[in-house]
Amino acid sequence: MAYVKPKKHLGQHFLEDMQIAQDIVDAMSSYGGYNEIYEIGPGTGVLTTRLLKKEEYKTTVIEIDTESVHYLKDVVGMPQEQVIEGDFLKLDFDKIAPHPVGLIGNFPYNISTQIYFKILAHKDQITECVGMIQKEVADRIACKTGGRTAGILTILVQAFYDVDYLFTVPPTVFNPPPKVDSAVISLRRNDRKQLPCSEELFFKVVKQAFSTRRKTLRNAMKPMGLSPELLKNEIFNKRAEALTVEDFIELTCNVEEDRKKQQD
């Protein structure tokens, strides 16, 4: 009987609970009007087999593990043209899917953060994403109230997506069991088409603000060369974790204006 051995260096933990697999697939809603789904890291096809039953979607899998690729083709029955063998993080997604698509997967823990940064880079194509990741990362992305849980991904993801924490998944339903709890979260592209400031600068401001979490923004953002006048703003008395998405957008607009004044 064909078998895929979980590989530690790929961060593979194969889901064995069929009901949870169905719940993950059912969480996809075609938000944004897409009719094509890309599954990242299908492994043994637990999600894939259920996606294939959804006739309203065309399912394409992206898998880096050659052993899994053979299994998906030979056992699961995935057509050759719906299997992409490669690293999702290195693929040119603009060429693969230049149109609205959905994304789904039991994401490898060791690259889950990178996956969400790539989703942000293709936010105008990826209108919906349902992913299972480490609970700690899920809590950070889905954080609603700020505080210690908030981080870079909290702000960057929620600037462009509505995020919902769907449910927690225990280690016991995986082979091999991870050492931590997992969680499933969903992302749906919001109505914000563009920021009123430079998107590149927005990303830089957020990353710099969280670079030293225990410091106030006044100290954390010193490397950005802000003027003494701007630094008098009371927002710089706060820590990054206390700011909302809208606060960061306003802050970036002020930083952008400050830079223009310094150049004049």
Structural class: alpha/beta
Beta-strand percentage?
15-25%
Q: Number of helical segments?
A: 11
H and E order: EHEHEHEHEHEHHEEEHHHH
CATH hierarchy class name of the largest domain: Alpha Beta
The helical percent reads: 25-40%
- In quaternary terms, these chains amount to single chain
Strand order of the biggest β-sheet: 4-3-2-5-6-9-7
Query: How many strand units?
Result: 9
EC number: 2.1.1.182
Domain Ribosomal RNA adenine methylase transferase N-terminal: 20-191
Subcellular location: Cytoplasm
Function: Specifically dimethylates two adjacent adenosines (A1518 and A1519) in the loop of a conserved hairpin near the 3'-end of 16S rRNA in the 30S particle. May play a critical role in biogenesis of 30S subunits.
How does this model look, in words?
With 264 residues, this protein is an alpha/beta fold. It folds into two domains: 8-189, Rossmann fold (3-Layer(aba) Sandwich); 199-263, Orthogonal Bundle (Helicase, Ruva Protein, domain 3), CATH 1.10.8.100. It contains eleven helices and nine strands. The chain has helices at residues 18-26, 48-51, 66-76, 93-96, 112-121, 135-142, 152-160, 199-209, 217-220, 228-231, 245-263, and strands at residues 14-15, 36-40, 58-63, 83-85, 101-106, 126-134, 161-169, 174-175, 182-189. Strands 4-3-2-5-6-9-7 form a seven-stranded mixed sheet, with helices on both faces. Helix 5 (112-121) links the parallel strand 5 and strand 6. Helix 5 packs parallel to helix 7 (152-160). The radius of gyration is 20 Å and the shape is elongated.
